[in-house]
């Protein structure tokens, strides 16, 4: 989902979840939107996933789109290595609410 599409989506819908995804061992973050139908859309620029170097960069970009709440999700390679499914919806173990 391109940034302009994100702005349009946010203006028209109010039932969605924004996730800021960090990968263990990486200094970069990605942004993902999950809509009410459960479809996931990665924030892209020119068709390539956008990477952010800091949470401040993420906050600035999301504020420009009119978003002020998100969840920080940390992906841990251990889950992937042993074949366990990651559980983003479990609020106590795998994500942290962000308000900016």
Written overview of the protein:
There is one protein chain. The protein is α+β, with helices and mostly antiparallel strands and 100 residues long. The model has no long low-confidence stretch (mean pLDDT 87). It is 25% helix and 34% strand. The relative contact order is 0.21. The two termini are 22 Å apart. The strands form 2 sheets. A 5-stranded mixed sheet has the order 3-2-1-6-7, with no helix packed on it. It has a two-stranded antiparallel sheet with strand order 4-5. It has one domain (3-99). The chain is globular, with a radius of gyration of 13 Å. InterPro entries: DUF6482.
Strand order of the largest sheet: 3-2-1-6-7
Distance between the termini: 22 Å
Low-confidence stretches: none
Percentage of residues assigned to helices: 25-40%
What about the largest sheet? 5 strands, mixed
Which structural traits does this protein have?
100 residues; alpha+beta; 5-stranded mixed beta sheet; two-stranded antiparallel sheet; 3 helices; 25% helix; DUF6482
Summarize the structure.
It is built from 3 helices and 7 strands. With 100 residues, it is of the alpha+beta class.
Secondary structure elements and pairings:
Blueprint: H1 3-12, E1 16-23, E2 29-35, E3 40-42, E4 44-45, E5 48-49, H2 55-64, E6 69-75, H3 77-81, E7 95-99
Parallel strand pairs: 1-6
Antiparallel strand pairs: 1-2, 2-3, 4-5, 6-7
């Amino acid at each position: 989902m391109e940034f302009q599409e994100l702005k349009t989506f946010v203006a028209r819908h109010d039932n969605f979840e924004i996730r800021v995804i960090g990968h263990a061992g990486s200094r970069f973050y990605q942004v993902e939107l999950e809509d009410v139908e459960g479809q996931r859309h990665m924030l892209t620029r020119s068709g390539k996933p956008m990477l952010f170097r800091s949470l401040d960069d993420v906050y600035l970009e999301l504020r420009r789109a009119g978003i002020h709440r998100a969840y920080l999700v940390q992906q841990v390679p251990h889950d992937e290595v042993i074949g366990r499914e990651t559980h983003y919806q479990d609020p106590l173990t795998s994500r942290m609410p962000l308000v900016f």
